[in-house]
Amino acid sequence: MYLTQTYTCKTDSEFELLHITGSDEYNKNLEKNILKNGISHPLIVWQGFLVDGYKRYKICQKHDIPFPTHTISAETRFDVMEWICDQILLRKDLSEERKKYYIGKKFLYRVDASKDKPAIEISVQGQPKMRSKRYGIAAVIGDPFDLSYGTVLKYGQYASALDSIKAQEPDIFERIVSGEVKISHENAVEISHLTGDDMRILRDCFNDKNRNHISHSEIWHELQWNRVHPTLPTSRKKKQTTAPIKQMPKYDPDAELSSLTLTIPSWIKSIERTVNNADFSAATDSAKHRLREQLRELSKAADFLYFYSREVSHE
Question: How many domains does the chain fold into?
């Protein structure tokens, strides 16, 4: 049963930002339809706060149109936001990247809502049973989508990275989740660790309508080029990038070093994130062995490069 019609609700920016922003054309058509036919479905509220129907609500406010409401029951804000994710995941027009994003958000909200609850025991074929809250939640969420718990954990990391990007550059976020520009999961995570200035450098790269894919090398080349030539206008930079050989910029002896210097902080962040998030007690011995082997190789390579750079510098 719906509540009596009303004119106002309390709004919540966190609830609203979870929803997909409609195009100008969609919003205009929605407004025309409401003015002609009124509100056909109730707006969803929780404890007096508007949960679903923000576009319709703004139109009703603009034209003083009353609307019916329906209250949902939920224990926490995290439960409400997970409910929003569930409704969006029912849509048939979601891009694959949006689907990953909202599954990841659903996982993150479930983890936050279960902080005071016990771990969940899960069983993975060929492995002993594990007791891990994050792994257990990931397994439960992944089941309806035929996803492994490892994939859901990865989507959670992906969603967190995209939220960091969205906070600084909404245009980059929208181009990624819409599927208009394809980048790898790893690149999304690396971009999320960039400073605001570096992310602004990438904005033009992502807003280029002629691009539908951006590789790791293109991202770091863009950053390196803008750091080396920060005062050149964007149009000049683009011409130089595609110019004939005789017009290419002068050889930069620092280029390789600068590129590696820019990349290393992302490695450090990845290692810190693994230390903070991974459940080493639940990981298999073979996985930990492979990790140690690669860390040893990385350590040897880093030591060699460090001492080599000192030797040629005569320090």
Answer: 2
Residue 264 and residue 272 in contact, taking contact as beta carbons nearer than 8 Å: no
Torsions phi, psi for 229 (to 5 deg): -125, 65
Identify the three-state secondary structure at position 147: coil
Nearest to 238 by CA among 261, 207, 262, 263: 207
Contacts of 122 (CB under 8 A, 6+ apart): 129, 130, 132, 135, 136, 139, 149
Per-residue pLDDT, 297: 79
CB-based burial, 226-263: b 16+ in 10 Å, e otherwise: bbeeeeeeeeebeeeeeeeeeeeeeeeeeeeebbeebe
Q: Which residues lie closer than 8 Å to 78 by C-beta, 6 or more apart?
A: 109, 110, 112, 113
Residues 6+ apart with CB under 8 A from 306: none
Q: Give the residue numbers spanning the domain of 201.
A: 93-239
**Against a cut of 0.85, is the pTM above it?**
no
CA atoms of 188 and 173, how far apart (whole Å) = 9
274 in a domain, yes or no? no
pLDDT in tens, 160-208: 999 999 999 999 999 999 999 999 888 899 899 888 888 888 888 898 8
- Is residue 39 assigned to a domain? yes
Q: Which residues of the chain have pLDDT under 50?
A: 1, 126-128, 235-236, 238-248, 314-315
What is the rounded CA–CA span in Å between residue 59 and residue 207? 30
- For 224-245, the pLDDT digits (tens) are 776 655 555 554 454 444 444 3
Tokens encoding 10: 């309390």
The answer on 168 and 137 residing in a single domain is: yes
